[in-house]
TrEMBL record:
Ranges of residues in domain Mur ligase N-terminal catalytic: 29-100
Domain Mur ligase central span(s) in chain numbering: 113-325
Protein name per Swiss-Prot or TrEMBL: UDP-N-acetylmuramoylalanyl-D-glutamate--2,6-diaminopimelate ligase
Organism the protein comes from: Carnobacterium alterfunditum
Entry keyword set: Ligase
The organism's place on the tree of life at top rank: Bacteria
GO molecular function: acid-amino acid ligase activity; ATP binding
Annotated metabolic or biological route of this protein: Cell wall biogenesis; peptidoglycan biosynthesis
SUPFAM superfamilies in UniProt: MurD-like peptide ligases, catalytic domain, MurD-like peptide ligases, peptide-binding domain, MurE/MurF N-terminal domain
Listed Pfam families: Mur_ligase, Mur_ligase_M
Length: 528
């Protein structure tokens, strides 16, 4: 691709050298890279600044590898290679990537959701609706990237802009028509989704979970809110009115806004007649105000019932988001109902690993909202005793450990939990997830203050073994924690067969057969 076309819409502040040996439209670019290991001949290399590294430090190496053009935020002295100076190299990378792949997001209906909790579940539920209507769909998120039936595991919740546009291009080439995308606050702040043509955007909830990645809660909120504020006139924005902070955003976007609430009845959509059967909700949806589909058709005032297959009050919010997304994409209500009913959940999001003589559940419990949703869901289940195995989340500071411990103890007293089975799982934690002595001490301090007994094991397997041994008929074992617990489900299910040999082996093997998180990468590749 010639450089002039590639630079369309990129604001260049200045160029070095000033006297070019070649005109820009005579320079051919065969590749874009932001990491030197991806550089080859005729590459345009973009220097982006990360939390730990700065691409400007690797520009000389990129030139030696064959980069012929370097995009910088400040010129690098002593380099005999064309440098293009921009004010924001991340924004430039997003525009360049979209140009390079010929604006692939324009070819599909793109749904993007931001929230502290529920992004993954919502995208999976919407994908189930797309499949129910027999659409060729794609999904990009925390767990995986799916292109129709092809899957690869994810490294970031929202990929870097070049990788994102490359995924879109592959989807376009595979004739994908509808895509669901998780949009993290970091992705918004770091311009990863800049120049993506969103058709539907949603902001569902917010709590102080990822403030450490931002300057303040206000900065965290503004990052997420930018998905709504920057939505185009032709798009639809979905807002949850039961989150008071989100209400003003209705007047801060050019998009058509569709709102819903369970407690707040003033929006476009509300629900009534909520019933729970073994914790699984069914309810009546009422559309109180008409709105338009993406093709311009009118959705009239009406009401209908929705039945779900996943438990929890919070699941109703996820279903309403998925419902609106389906409706504005011109999907009939009957297919939406079918997709929501067929949706069985997501790995590590209140995932029922075993449900026979006792229950085994896997959830993250990463923040107060996550804990509240999980425990509220369990409160609707019939059980004898609740046993909790928890892997502390590291590298978030003692204050975060205290908050998590306090949130847990509030529920312990309500649900008559007298003991927590605890681990730091150092052998299963990446370097940036390791638990410090201060974080462990802060957690244990709260437990002691609330008279909660702690059974502490350093290793993950020893912790899970102790938990599985506690199980009796009609009990629940809840395994929880961040990435250090990713392999917990596999190990727990193996221990179930060892310690309780009369369990349903076929049921356990079926779960292991479909698992992706925490499994051997070669086995995952075989499944994919």
């Amino acid at each position: 691709m010639n450089l002039t076309d590639l630079l369309t819409s990129v604001e260049i502040d200045s160029i070095r050298p000033n006297q070019l040996k070649k005109e820009l439209d005579n320079i051919d670019i065969k590749k874009i890279a932001y990491h030197t290991k991806e550089v080859a001949a005729d590459t345009l290399f973009v220097c982006i600044k990360g939390h730990q590294t700065d691409g400007h430090n690797y520009a000389r190496h990129a030139a030696k590898q064959g980069a012929t053009v370097i995009v910088v935020e400040q010129f690098i002295e002593g380099m005999d290679v064309l440098q293009l100076k921009v004010s924001d190299s991340r924004e430039a990378l997003a525009i360049l990537s979209s140009n390079f792949f010929a604006h692939p997001s324009n070819s599909m209906s793109i749904f993007g959701v931001t929230a502290t909790n529920g992004k993954t579940t919502i995208t999976y539920m919407i994908d189930e609706i797309f499949k129910a209507y027999q659409l060729k769909s794609g999904l990009i998120g925390t767990i995986l990237v799916k292109i129709d039936k092809k899957i690869e595991m994810s490294r970031l919740t929202t990929p870097e802009s070049y990788d994102l546009q490359q995924h879109f291009a592959k989807m376009r080439d595979h004739e994908i028509t509808h895509v669901s995308l998780e949009v993290s606050s970091s992705a918004l702040e770091l311009k990863r989704v800049h120049n993506t043509d969103f058709d539907v955007v949603a902001f569902m909830n917010i709590s102080p979970e990822h403030i450490r990645l931002h300057e303040s809660f206000d900065a965290y909120f503004d990052a997420k809110a930018s998905l709504i504020r920057n939505a185009s006139k032709k798009s639809t924005a979905i807002l949850n009115l039961d989150e008071p902070l989100l209400i003003p955003l209705e007047k801060e976007t050019e998009a058509q806004v569709v709102t819903f609430g369970i407690e707040n009845k003033s929006g476009t959509i509300t629900v009534s007649n909520i019933q729970f059967s073994s914790g699984i909700p069914s309810f009546t949806v009422s559309i109180l105000k008409p709105f338009n589909t993406l093709s311009g058709k009118k959705i009239d005032i009406t009401s209908f019932d929705l039945e779900m297959s996943v438990p929890g009050y919070h699941s109703i919010y996820n279903a309403l988001t998925a419902l609106v997304t389906g409706l504005v994409n011109d999907i009939p209500i009957e297919d939406i109902q079918q997709g929501i009913k067929k949706f069985r959940g997501v790995e590590r999001r209140f995932q029922m690993l075993y449900d026979k003589e006792f229950k085994v559940i896997d959830d993250l419990l990463l923040n107060q909202n996550n804990i509240d949703s999980c425990m509220e869901t369990i409160s609707h289940l019939d059980y004898n005793k609740l046993h909790l195995v928890h892997a502390i989340r590291g590298s978030n500071g003692p204050a975060h450990s205290t908050e998590i411990a306090e949130s847990l103890t509030e529920w312990f007293h309500k649900m008559n939990v007298a003991k927590i089975i605890l681990t730091t799982a150092p052998s299963h934690a990446a370097k940036n997830d390791e638990v410090t002595d201060e974080e462990l001490a802060a957690f244990l301090k709260v437990m002691k203050q609330n008279n909660i007994e702690v059974a502490f094991f350093k290793g993950l397997e020893d912790t899970l073994r102790f938990g599985v041994k506690q199980l009796n008929v009609d009990d629940i074992l809840l395994i929880s924690g961040a990435h250090s617990m990713d392999q917990g489900a596999k190990k727990t299910l193996e221990l179930l067969k060892e310690i309780h040999p009369k369990v349903d082996h076929e049921s356990i093997d079926q779960v292991l057969k479909t698992k992706l998180i925490g499994m051997d990468p070669f086995k995952v590749a075989e499944k994919i």
